[in-house]
Amino acid sequence: MDIAFIAQIFPKLLAGLPLTLLLAVLSLLGGGLIALGLSGLRASSWIGARVADFYVYIFRGTPLLIQIFLIYYGLAQFPAVRHSVLWPLLREPYVCAVLALMLNDGAYTSEILRGGLRAVSTGAIEAARVSGMTRLTMLRRIVLPLAFRQALPAYGAEITSMVKATSLASVVTLMEITGIARAEVSETYRAIEIFLCAAAIYLVLVTVIARAVDWLEQHLSPYRRPTGARSLA
Amino acid sequence: MDESLTLLGFGPEGWGQVLLNGGLMTLAVSACAFALGLGLGTLCAWARIAGSAPVQRLAQGYGVVMRGVPDLLVIYLFYFGGRQIASAVAKQFGHVGPVEISGFAAGCLAIGLLSGATQAEVLRGAFHAIAPGTLEAARVTGMRRWTMFPRIIAPLALRTALPGLGNQWQSVIKESALVSVTGLVEALRAVTVAANSTELPFLFFLAGGGIYLAITTISGLLFRIAEWRSMRGQAAATGRG
Would you say the ipTM is above 0.95? Predict the structure, then answer.
């Protein structure tokens, strides 16, 4: 192992970290909104529920890479898209990557949210209704916090999987960590050192996030603290 | 619309055969990677259940690393890293210049290793779901470990593990699309080639999505049938889930 080379490659790769994080944060935010929208749709009517199911089925049944390609390369097939006001945006690989990551994350997050909502006991909802809360207050104060707490471990896994998924943005020329690594390899042909360094960065990032979610989970379950027993799920 | 159908069909103008071959290649890569992952997962689960402390830590470390690194990066590492090693070895024998390695092998190895980490967790969970009394009974009747594994442990654990393994198979199929970066002509690569030469990217990437959706849907159904069959005769006998 060539220490000098690694010392030189690390800062170069770290320069891609802000973009990796930005992609992850934007797609998680957008995905979260889509997931909320999908659960609203699910609750609205029978048809709404089928539409939401179909959305989830499509996005979970196909690879993310094909979703990125479909948006980045595919939309350009239509002259109407190329001549629309949105074209300057849709031409950007950055916008397309975030859009695909968002749509994909929305499908997975909505399933996690559904699991969390199912775990809210009817007793809690009854109690809230009896104490005179409106639907919105109940949602904000009772249902969503309880569902969030329940869904947190699964959502933590989704956060880390999104951070890893941002690496696919490199395939449409974005220079985040993986993109920089790929470019450096084609320049120096030292694939093993460079990709291992990049992997180490992701590993640290994912570990930090997983720890943070664990801490939040502990923090949000004070009733579990005395026994010290961790989640059985 | 008619034109699209011709392009997607099996006629002389159509790309049907190319797409079909790509789909079959996706299945082949996925099957090899999944089998490798199942082997590795079983070994790791065994290591974590019955291994000595260092062996347990090793298996645990493997899991942490594999679950913390992007799939694409692992494929790159195996494909380009493999090429780097192969070139270095070839140089020792007097060959100059880059050496090509198989995208299929690199892809299977990478995805197999990734999937093995998750399959290990599924199998470990399934082992712990076996009632301790069952294992005790087997031991009391004088079974040795090597008899217990195929007769008691594997059938019971696999039944519990089936849904988890089904999920893993689905994600292996989706991960196999990433092997297209090595130039292997699986489904995604096939539709990319077709999209470029016809200049109809939307149509062909949509068709590609259709291929994956068909594979994941059909295999999902097959796994559900397998689950149902494996539970025959004991639907409600045990409350284990």
Answer: no
